[in-house]
Design brief:
Length: 196
Amino acid sequence: MRNHISYFIFAMIIVFCSEFFSTVGKVIYGEQFNSTPFMAGGIIICFFVTVFIYFYKILENRWSKRIQLGIIAVNCVNVILSLILIKDFFIFLPYPTYFVTIILLLASVTLFFFETFNSEKILNILSYYPFWIAISLIVLYVGLVPLIVISKRAVELSISKNIFFILLYSVNFTGYAIMFIGILFSKTEKLIRKTH
C-alpha cells in the first residue's frame, strides 16, 4: 500500500481492539475490571512498536532509517526492562515505560519532519498523508501526558471526574479529527491533479 499506510491501519486496529475490550470489560464487570493488560499490552507494546516500524518504512534517507532502527531497538529494551523490573506491569499502568515511549515517539516524529521538510515532499505537504498522521500522533499522545499526570493527582487537585473525561475526549477527538482532515486533503489534492 502506498506510504506503507497498512502498518498504520494495523496500529489503529490494535488501539480499537484494546479500547473495545477495555470498555466491554468495564460494562460487564463494572469499575473493578482491570483494563491495564489491554492498555499496557495493546497500546504501550503492540501499538507503539507498529507505529515505530511505520515511520521506519516511510523514511527514505539511509541515515534516517538507521536512527529510526535505533529508536525501535531502544523501545524494545525499554519494554523488556519494564517487564523485568516493574512487577505490576499488567496490573497498574506502567507510567515510566509510557513516558519513555512518548519521548521515543517524539524523536521518530522529529526525524520524520526533518526528512520531509528537507525534501520535495514539502511542496505538496497537505497531500502527504504521513504528515497528518505525525501531527495527530503528537496531539493524541503528547496531549495525553499532562492528563495522565493530572489523573494521578486528581483528588489532590479537586478535579471532577466529568471535567477530566471532557479533557480526555477533547484530546482524542482533536487527534482523530486531524487524521480525518488529512484524508480529505489528500483526496482533494489528488482529484485536483487528475483534473489538470
